[in-house]
Amino acid sequence: MTGQRIKEGDSVLPGERLGVIEEFLPGEGTFQDEDDIIYASITGLVHIDMKERKISVKGTTRKPIYPTRNDVVLGVIQHVTKKSAIVNIFQIEDQECPITFSGYLFIKNAAGGYIDQMRDLFVPGDLIIARVQQQADGLARLSTVGSRYGVVQASCSRCGEPLHLQGRRLECVECGNYEKRKLSQNYGKIPNSEPPTEITQSED
Ligand SMILES: [Zn+2]
Questions:
Q1: What is the extent of the structural domain holding 53?
Q2: Domain count of the chain?
Q3: How far is the CA of 177 from the centre of ligand 1 (A)?
């Protein structure tokens, strides 16, 4: 006796028997042995496609979400001092973080050249794309050197409306204000980049 039959939505572990070739085609997350028995190859949930008679397992174990070296992250500038900025990281390599991580951006890793003031590059509330240089003690050291990295979304510091790219500057069409940032080449083009609401209000 192998117990009850596997059905849609069942949670399975690697090596768990799912069925036989006579019943199903083995899909993603499965394998078959010489006896034509189909097993789960990953931990996940069973999906049975009745039309194609295919059984597959959708993985539920993702790689742990943690900023590690060379990860590309999305975050919101939380605080800016003369030489550094604190960033709330909420997305790592296209995966939303369950909690936000703190990132630290040093002025020498911000634009690649001499910069007098961090405030010339970033303003609290800016959405940025950055690369993790190093991760230690729960703090990710970030870099925004390179055309891919920098601000991808910003608001007018005078009236709060979204800023639009105008040449190499940002323009507020609402009040006519111009602002400068360390821009990413992807300014205004980052999809699914809505930061969680609790970290968007960080203007102070
Ligand atoms: Zn404005």
A1: 11-59
A2: 2
A3: 5
